[in-house]
Design goal:
Elements lengths: L4 H23 L10 H5 L12 E8 L2 E7 L6 E7 L48 E5 L10 E2 L3 E7 L3 E9 L9 E4 L4 E4 L5 E4 L2 E4 L6 E7 L3 E8 L2 E2 L5 E4 L6 E9 L3 H14 L5 H14 L3 H9 L2 H7 L4 H13 L5 H12 L4 H9 L2 H9 L6
Parallel strand pairs: 4-5, 9-16
Antiparallel strand pairs: 1-2, 2-6, 3-4, 3-7, 7-8, 9-11, 10-12, 12-15, 13-14, 13-16
Helix pairs in contact: 3-4, 3-5, 3-7, 7-8, 7-9
Length: 380
Amino acid sequence: MALPKKKWIYLFLAASLAILFLVPSLLLGTGDFPSTNALNRDRQNPALRGQEVPYVELAEQGVGYVELEFVNPGPHLAFFEYRIDGEDSPYRGTDWENTHPLVDREGSWRYDDPDYDYSYPHFTDPGPGQYYHLIGLDPSGQYQDVRVEQANRRMERFEVRETIEVRLAYAQNPQWCFDWTAFSAQNPAIVAVQNQGGTISPSGEVTAAYGSSKTFTIQADPGYYIQDVIVDGESVGPVDTYDFFRITDSHSIEPVFASLEGNTSEFVNMLYQNILGRETDPQGLTDWVTAIAQEGMTGEEVATALIFSDEGRQRTEAYDNTQFVAFLYRALLDREPDIAGLSGWAAALYEGMSRQRVVQGLCRSPEWENICAGYQITPY
């Protein structure tokens, strides 16, 4: 039975639409660059599927570098073009900005651009405003050209801060021009170790953009102080902030906290009670314990600083020489003065000796040395 005329028309239109959509998909199917994964390769033109085609594989990636293997199974010449960290196209601002700078969509060489010189040495020594870098592989060995290596594969490591993008710039029979495929370098990582007794922020494994900076803040918990901060295995002292500048490698940072309870804090508490007549405040205790533990401050230096602090002077400024000496015996030696010691030091003050010198004299006595030894403090 013959089909009605209208049905023939419908079938013709359907076939035409199928051809309209099918043919461009076959022609444009080569627009995917043969990259590191099978899925990308399978999206090629079905007519080329199963053939050995040029491709690039990621061999190794690290902080600041990417190592790639360029492969051209042959037998034809292939050029790979690459740009690092988003280099600007040499065709920026021209009609070719978003098209291929070396070959057109059909793979024909563009020797007719009046604005660019394709001849040697410009073609082999690209620079600003000229070309992206090229790698040429010719397994047949037919092309005697400085741009071309007579081999079917090449391994190369690139210094990369973020990404390197590669595309097949030109190949003969068939002539291909595939889009950019990106390979990323690893970001530097800083491992911030969290220890008992305080916090570091941020903590854990912290990634940073290559060449960027990162600040870490360190804070001790109540009852602890920052004893030290270790950066990449080296001490940087009891700092409460640390900055990494222009990060181009991985690092580590670890704060070390220590308890305020112990011999050193008991020594500071004793001096506060004897000299200032009060308990230590949390910040004052932390500061003095840190100064003794980290800066090597002696017992004499702590005592002198407290006695002649504003708060200490308010207690002693009204004392006469005899009263001041008696105060020092109670504050430093934790006892009442003997008659000989009291009269001797008071007489020295009346004769012109400074009060600082009297403090120093008592802190050089065997009695003061024994007191400091009991707290495991360097006396002077």
